[in-house]
Prior knowledge:
This protein is of the alpha/beta class. It is built from 21 helices and eleven strands. It comes from Acaulospora morrowiae.
Amino acid sequence: xxxxxxxxxxxxxxxxTLSENGIKLLISNKRYSQVTxxxxxxxxxxxxxxxQIVAGPFCGTILGYYGAEVIKVESPGTGDTxxxxxxxxxxxxxxWFRAIGRNKKSCEINLRTEEGRKLARQLADRSDVLIExxxxxxxxxxxxxPEELYKTNPSIVYTRxxxxxxxxxxxxxxxxxxxxxxxxxxRHINRFRDQPLVRQNLSLGDSxxxxxAALGIVMCLLVRKKFPPNARSGQExxxxxxxxxxxxxxxxxxxxxxxxxxxxxxxxxxxxNAYLCxxxxxIVIDGDGEFLHEKLxxxxxxxxxxxxxxxxxxESIQHKxxxxxxxxxxxxxxxxxxxxxxxxxxxxxxxxxxxxDIVEDEHFRKRDxxxxxxxxxxxxxxxxxxxxxxxxxxxSATPGGTxxxxxxxxxxxxxxxxxxxxxxxxxxxxxxxxxxx
Length: 437
């Protein structure tokens, strides 16, 4: 049985928002969903997710959060790789998968078999959106490329996520996030000068690609409404991880084009740095600009450092005297004291948080950034609550939300294969016997 969750833990702010708009809130504990009078913006859209790990699945997570029905196709017996990544819970599944798989329906199909691909084709014919993040050419090899699918479903939005895109000299290269972050220039910028490059402990490029793909899908769905019935209104979306990273590189390209200047890593500047406090916690202080610089020097009682050289942003990047002066001050105070003094003067600052700090921070709770779902209700211990981060942006009248955690592998096999595709019990058993599902 699919876990049912307390709506008060999930639909944060909904009662207040709907009440203000004079709309009655309705909650129904149905098996697969909680029903409210406020429709989610993507309700009625069916998404077929053929990807795994981060980029493709994160795109599906965003769409599902805002109401799309997401059918996640997984390899029989093993499922998405994320199921076994990072910490593994007592049910044998990683909490990470319970997050990225939220609101999705899991269907086991072996795409490496002809019968499995036939099933996937039938699902695609009944879907509005397809998401895949295989290496370019794999879907065509399987007879599931866009041109094939358009023959029977001309309105499908065919979304492709890969490391380097579907065309170009690098298209066939394997493209993990770390590699794509490097070639897009992010790794060059995000480091200290004259020190080895480091990798953040997150797949930033994958998440950016998933977000980029979700944006493209929503735009294509809007455009699709402008076409007459039965016209080829679908589009192919080509998302490259390295291009998604390049999109966030600010003015690096035009600066180089106009001035021949290659933006270099800055590490930490004097007035934009993380400083250690007496309680061994770090505070980031951003006092860039002449006005903020003067205020900061006044707070730390070093107004002698308000000089033309120190006030110039470019010079302050490596101004060791200034850095040491600020550090000497922060090390004499606790992080709380530093924050209070800086906030009083309206100097931008913040503590460097780990996830424990985030969970305990009142601001995050007041912003309704945590949702709780029930996992493992069919286990002997009755299951447990799992905290997930909400997905943004927040919509005032048609909010998204987590209805259920990432499902067990193949949890929706029968619903999808029998209800959607009309297969009978004997056909299901035969497919299972042959390793197709």
